[in-house]
Design a protein that fits this description.
The chain is an alpha+beta fold and 151 residues long. Helices cover 28% and strands 26% of the residues. The protein has four helices and six strands. The termini are far apart.
């Protein structure tokens, strides 16, 4: 595992401790690395009106955008697992859902880079690393709209 992956997975695990997941009992944490080394984190946030729930990756990317840093996203670490006794548990590797891959793609296309995505379970040493283009080949994004979108 690279130093980058190790750092982002550790920060994503810390962020997952703050997941608000009373309906699924599945906590997810994400840590987004920006060009200057800054890391922005997020945890999933569920809502009784399920469609209003937010994935951890979306929260972290939106936080980077709120700081004016959407074009600076270079990598993201994602972890997830079942919440038991207040802790996020499990060693199965969790990958971003399709919606989150699209949200990450927005940052990737605006920043002009193929974002690295490091995925792990809430526990354990297994980490799978990808580029976004591996997880979302032939993605639709800002470039397909024919307009110049800036982050």
């Amino acid at each position: 595992m690279t130093d980058e992956a190790t750092r982002l997975i550790a920060l994503a695990r810390e962020a997952a401790r703050h997941a608000h997941a009373p309906y699924s009992n599945f906590g997810v944490g994400a840590a987004v690395l920006l060009t200057d080394g800054t890391v922005v984190t997020g945890a999933n946030f569920e809502n009784a009106s399920y469609g209003l729930s937010l994935c951890a990756e979306t929260v972290a990317i939106a936080s980077a955008s709120a700081q004016g840093r959407l074009s600076d996203v270079v990598a993201i670490g994602v972890i997830g697992g079942v919440i038991r006794d207040g802790a996020v548990t499990g060693s199965d590797v969790v990958r971003p859902c399709g919606r989150c891959r699209q949200v990450i793609n927005e940052a990737a296309q605006i920043g002009g880079r193929d974002v690295r995505v490091h995925c792990a379970g809430a526990q354990g040493d297994a980490v799978n690393s990808y580029t976004l283009s591996q997880l979302l080949p032939d993605a639709f994004g800002p470039a397909d709209l024919g307009i110049g979108v800036k982050g």
